[in-house]
Every structure is written in structure tokens, then in C-alpha cells.
Amino acid sequence: MRMPRYTGLDKLKILRLSHNKMTDDGVAALVHNLITLSELHLDGNQLLYSNWISNLTSLKVVDLSMNTLHEVNGICKLRKVEFLNLGANMLHGIINPCLGKLHRLNYLNMGHNFLRGEISSNLLANLTRLQTIHLGGNNLTGTFVFSWLANYSMLSELVLSNNPELEIETELETWTPLFQLEYLDLSDCIINKRRNGAIPAFLSTQMGLSGIDLSRCSLRGTVPSWLIYNLSDILLLQGNNIDFIEMVPVKWLDGNMTSVLQVLDLSNNRISMVIPDDFASPFASMEYLDMSSNLLYGGVPSLAEATSLQVLDLSFNRLTGEIPPSLNGNGSILTSLLLSDNDLTGPMPPSRWSLTELVHLILENNRFSGNLSSVLSSSSQLKELNVRNNDLSGIIHDGILSSSQDLGIVLLGGNDFHGAIPFGLCSNNHLHFLDLSNNRFSGEVPSCFYNDYWTDLPLYINDEPFPGNVTRSMSVDFTTKGENLTYKGEPLVLMTAIDLSMNQLTGTIPQPIGFLRQLKSLNLSHNHLVGPIPETFLYLEDMESLDLSHNHLNGSLPVHLTNLSFLCYFNVAYNNLSGMIPFQSQFMTFNASSFEGNCNLCGEIINKNCSTPHKQE
């Protein structure tokens, strides 16, 4: 960016030129004589080097984040600087020792660069005024010893996360911290390898923490009670090898004691224990509890005292029995309940359940029974309903699903539902995934799948912020393209799919389905459908997977299907189709198994000649 010449700026104190595509030459020409500057904000530009800054010796605040800086030599001349943000640049190699000369620093951010090598104890020895240290998201190695920070009295925020080869030792020496941390993130490092992955003991002295993230740090053993009861608002310990939580019996706790813990994530560990019903008694403020992917056994705890709980995830454990009615009773504000992949039984929903606030209900791969009428008719906020592979049964009546206008994911496959597919599905405005497979639905495929929302599906599904700014990465497993695939992130947002396979559906395939232009996967296999493949399938421009196998379809294969340029999986096996199989475009990639079981089909793909009348000359 070419900078105009300015005059009369010799007494300028603060300069903000963020996100302006500025380069080194332009900045150098502009700031050369601004020797009185105390604050310089040039984040989000295109700066490569720092030599132009060396004469601005009055600077106290420097923000050069989100540039492409390769070195810091000029910055090291700024002996008065107190705030230095160099995050998200192209810094590489070791941390330049010259930064240790900036004795007045209270804020240092060099996160998300390409720094390598060890963190020097000598560097830290000279920067004892630091309140914030952010070195996360690099490739730092070696050992970082916490006792190096013993003389830091003002340190409040420390981030060393996402340095997978960095070993952090907190127990090598006896030391007492002078600081009181407010936030600590050591996730995706290796903690206390020489002490068998012990949880850092110094945390017992930190009484002002608002957040602790020790996820994926190779921690082992027991979570001490003081870490849960006394400390942080947010405690993230997922992805370790923790096997037990030290619980304090409620009767031993001070009656006036109320934990400040709002978010507790212990998912993906090896915790083997029963969660007591009074587990949440000290946690009146708890909003988010994730203990999924552990070895928990026994029943689902009632958590009756957790009146602030919004998100509960106990999926992928060994829990048995029924869901206690008090878990989501009157007054509950629970929005997300995830109990999939356990061995839970009993009716769904339990009696006296409050369903009005539920947004995500995920109960797949259990043994729940009963029908879903009350869930579907009273859960007006539902966006995600997954009850696949249970023992649910009954008829889903028309109009029941229309009360949940925001439903984006409806997964009812692998149960014993029967009757007609409800037309209420067609009044939904946001449907992305519909799985009714492997049930006993009968009657015709609804012809109402043609509403405007199906031709312009809003892409609303995304990672949602939960309490404490925790983000749950939504994912959906869906059978398409002949295999079970997991969709998350952008592929989840862009995916639209219908699976009505393995039912008892009859009649013809309704023509309006062909107008679902954004539909990417359609599976109508293993039914009793008759008639031709609709000509309207010409308009399924985004279709990637189309399975019509194991029906009684007749007629020829429409040639226009070869124009579906994204179609990578196609199966019409075991029908009554006839005529020549087109051999062009996408159809040239399909193998013979996609067409087997149709005696009257012919063509190069199945190595069967088509008999044609002799042409008269």
C-alpha cells in the first residue's frame, strides 16, 4: 500500500493502521520520524521485517500480530516496550534471546508461529514482570520447568498449548509460586513425563483461576478433589489417561461451600467409577458436564441439584438402567442430552420430563423402548434428534414433527416404527439429514418433498458455542456412497441426505423428489417400489450417491442421469430395469455390481451385448 505523505505528526502518540495491506517500505516511510509514538498497532498487514521500528524507542505498546514477520531484531531495540503481540506471524527457529533484554514487558504473545527449539530459562529469568505469556501453537521442544517462574509475582495468564513435543515439568523441584494465575492452557503438550503424568500440584495454590485446559497432556491417575471443588470456572481434562475422580462425600463438605465450576470436561479418559447421584450438589453453577468416552458404569445420575446444567454428555460408556426422571424434570434448562452408546433401557421419554428447552437429543445405540410422540410434539426447540438403533416403536403421526421447525438432523433408523412416513417432515424448514432406514414404515414415499425450502436449504448447522465458550464439534454418521461416513465441519454444513431404505414402502417414486436440487444422497433401497426412475431426477444436480437397489422398478435407465456430474455412487441392482446401460460420463466409473439382478439390462458395463434390429440401407 502506497502511503501519502503526512506532516505535523512529530508529537503523535498512538497510531492504528490495522488490516491495511501495508508493507515494510510503506510503514518505514510513514513512521521514520514518529519518535514520540508510544502505541503502534499494525496487526493484519503484510510486514516481513522489523528493522524499520528500531528507532521508535518510546514505544510501549506494539501489536504486529497477523503479519508475515520473519525476525524480531528491530523490536529488540525497544527497551521501553511493555506490550508486545507478535502472534500469527512467520517467526521460525529458536526464540530470539535478544527479547530477554525487554525487561519492562508485561505482555508477550508469540503464539501461532513456527518457532522451534527449547524455551531458554535465561530468557525467562529477565522477564519477571510478565503478566501474560503466550507461546502456544508452535513447534517448541525440550523441557519447560515451572520452577523457572518462581520469581514471577504478576503472572496471570500462561499459554503453552499445541506444542506436541514440549515436555512440561512442574514437580522436578520444590517451589512455591508467587503468582496467582487466572488462565492456564497447557493442552497438547506432555506434562510431568518424569512423574508418570501427575497432575501439577502447584495448582492447589491457585485460587483465582477462571480457566484450566490440560487436555491431551498424557496425564495419568486420579483427579484430586481440590482441582474440581476449589478452583476454576472451566476445567478441561479430556483426552488423557485419568482413571478416577477423588470424590468428597457431600456430608463432609461445608454446607456453605459452593463451587464456581461451570464447565467440566473429562471426556476421552479411562475413568472407571459410578457417578453418585449427589455428584452435582456442590456445583450449583455447573452448566456443562462432559464425561463421554470413559468406562463409567452403573446408572445415569439424577443430578437433581444441577439446576443450571445445560449440556450433559455421558455417551460412549457402560451405563445401564433407566434415565431418572429428575435428570430433566420441571424447571430444567437442559438443552443438550447425549447418552448414546451405552446399555440404557426403559421408556423414552421418562415420565415427568421437561422437553421444551431441548435442542440436541442424542440417544442412539441403546435399548430405549416406547414411542417418541411426546418428544416430537413438545420439543419445539429441537435441532438434532438421534435415536437410531434402539427398540422404539409405534406410529409417528402427521403433524407431530411440525412443532420442531428448526429440526436439521432427524435420525430414527434401526427401530421398529411403522405406519406411513409423516407428512409433517415436509413442513420443516431446515432439514439436512433424514434417516428412517431399517424400520417398518409402509405406504408411499411422501410426495410433499418439493417445498421451497428443499430447493434452497439454509446451511445453519455449525459448531455451536456452549457455556464457557466451549464449542461442541457436531458430527453425524450417515450411510452414503455404500459406506458409513462421518460428517463434521464444513462437509456437515453442506451435506443434505435422505435414507428411507429397508422399509416396506410401496408405490412409485414421486416426481417432486427430483426437484430437491441440493440433495446429495438419496437411498430408497430394499423397499417395494415400482414404476420407472423419475425423469425429474435430471434436476438432482448435486447428487453424489443414489441407491435404488432391491426394489421392483421397471423401464429404462434415463440417459440424463449421465449428466449428474457429481454422482460417484449409483446402485440399481435387483430391480426389473431393461434396455441399454449408458456408457458415458460418470456411468463409465460404475462397476457391474451396480446393475446386477436386472435380467433385461445390457451394455458394455456388464459385458452383455444389446440386440438391435438390422438397419436397412
From TrEMBL:
One of its GO terms (cellular component) is plasma membrane. Pfam families: LRR_1 (PF00560), LRR_6 (PF13516). PROSITE patterns: LRR. It comes from the Eukaryota. InterPro entries: Leu-rich_rpt, Leu-rich_rpt_typical-subtyp, LRR_dom_sf, RLP_Defense_Trigger. Signal peptide: none annotated. Keywords: Cell membrane, Leucine-rich repeat, Membrane, Repeat. It is found in: Cell membrane. SMART domains: LRR_TYP (SM00369). Its main location: membrane. Gene3D superfamilies: Ribonuclease Inhibitor. Belongs to the RLP family. This is Leucine-rich repeat-containing N-terminal plant-type domain-containing protein. The lineage of its organism: Eukaryota, Viridiplantae, Streptophyta, Embryophyta, Tracheophyta.
